[in-house]
Amino acid sequence: MTGPVPLAQDPSTLTADCAGCLGLCCVSPGFDAGDDFAFDKRALAPCRHLGPDNLCRIHETLSDQGFPGCAKFDCKGAGQYVTQQIFPRKRWRKDRETLEAISEAYRRMRAVCDMAELLHLAARLPLSATQEAARRDMLDRLLPDPAWTADDLAQAEETGLLSDARAVLTSFRDAALRR
Q1: Is the separation of the CB atoms in 76 and 113 below 8 Å?
Q2: Which of 61, 82, 97, 160 has minimal CB crowding within 10 Å?
């Protein structure tokens, strides 16, 4: 009998759930008007299309309204992870300090989720037993149980967690060439 799949080993954990988030992708990053965005938005400012329910009011027509960058964007679950695991019951709309802390954790978590996605994709490669063990170990470091805290994420960034993940991925080059 097998137990539940560990969080890090379950690719479905890297799926965005806008309803479980606080609209972090619509408030935290800034963007410039151009091919991907119809207007400028400064970082830490809510997009004018973000509703009070923290959902995009034009989500179904983003590309048609000049926001193909938003239509293509996928936080890979970083938004709801930060909202539900790192800052449960915290809201950013009335507290600038909370907004800054949540946005910084979101930035870091997005990078972690990007690396985790690549490591999940690497499972398709003909990895050696040693490489597969390194892949799983790195996933466990990227998506730990218990969940990240904001301080743990900051410390992981400072100590080179993402560089370590890149090194593990780079070690799979030979397997990618055999594919």
Answers
A1: yes
A2: 97
In degrees rounded to 5, what are phi and psi of residue 32?
-110, 145
**7 band by pLDDT with thresholds 50, 70 and 90:** low
Q: Which two tokens stand for residue 131?
A: 């490489």
**Each residue of 33-69: pLDDT tens digit?**
999 999 999 999 999 999 999 999 999 999 999 999 9
The DSSP element (H or E) to which 72 belongs, if any, is helix 68-72
DSSP 102-160: HHHHHHHHHHHHHHHHHHHHHTTS---HHHHHHHHHHHHHHS-SSPP-HHHHHHHHHTT
Calculate the CA 134 to chain-centre distance. Answer: 21
Identity at 164, one-letter amino acid code: D
Lookup: tokens for 98: 């909370």
43 contacts 76 by C-beta, under 8 angstroms: no
Per-residue tokens: 121? 């994709």
State the DSSP code for 6.
P
Q: Whose structure tokens read 């799979």?
A: 172
Q: For residue 8, what are the CA distances in angstroms to 15, 64, 134? A: 13, 36, 13
Cα separation, 91 vs 107, whole angstroms: 17
Residue 131 contacts residue 172 (beta carbons within 8 Å): yes
Task: Using only the alpha carbons of the chain, give its radius of gyration.
Answer: 18
- What is the token pair recorded at 136? 């799983």
